[in-house]
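hiii, so i know i said id send this last week but things got crazy w the move. better late than never?? heres the sequnce for the chain we talked about at the cafe, plus the structure i predicted for it. fair warning i was half asleep when i ran it
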Amino acid sequence: MSTYETVMVERQGSVAVVSLNRPDNLNSFNKTLRRDLLLAVREVNGDDSVRVVVVTGVGRVFSAGADLADVPEDALTFRVEDQLNGEYKPVLMEIHEAHKPWISAINGACAGIGSALGMVCDLTVMAEDAFIYQAFAAISLIPDGGATWHLVRTLGRKRAYEVIVTGEKIRAEKCLQWGLCNRVVPADKLLEDTLAWAQEIAGKAPLSLRYAKQALNAAIEESVSDTISGEAKLQHICMGSEDAQEGVAAFLQKRKPEWQGR
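okay and structure toks below
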């Protein structure tokens, strides 16, 4: 794995761990972190030997959001719209459209654009003292990075609007109740428990992981009719794969399947 200035990438078998590494700045996003994270995400997504990715933050928080001290090089021509579309969106879409599952392991604060990173992942594990925070109303801004998309689809319109305008810190247990995370674990076991779950998932059929994610992403936007047809196309791909044949053979022979991802 490559070395980056503000991101650590480590391998644990078929699982990669991508860690935001600006702990002295609460893993807030500056230009370097935006660049490094995009390169790291593309690296692990492009490595077929990596079947599951965990993203977390070094230190006491996942991410405090954008670094407000990160002054644009040319303040006269700077447009936040260009930055969001040009630097943040590619990272978030790389994760959303990845062929493999991403799990966010949220420690401490997960705020601002950091919350968009946490929510865009396919699965989320939170430390018991962690929280998701939309701090924007306090500084006359709105959630970005797709945060409103995730919030309204998970919480519904009224509750999503409430957490935005009140700036509520949504604690881990409430996130679990509301569907914003899958599991809550002790803070000192966050990475250990997340890695154990990631390794378990990495043992599943890669094509099933890939196409189930693709089907769900499409189903959020499509009609029932289109969803049935879309599932049928993906099932046809899966049914004709070598892995499907291996899965049936392993089942009949009462042994563990050896997946090839094809």
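btw The chain has ten helices and nine strands. thought thatd interest u
miss u guys!!
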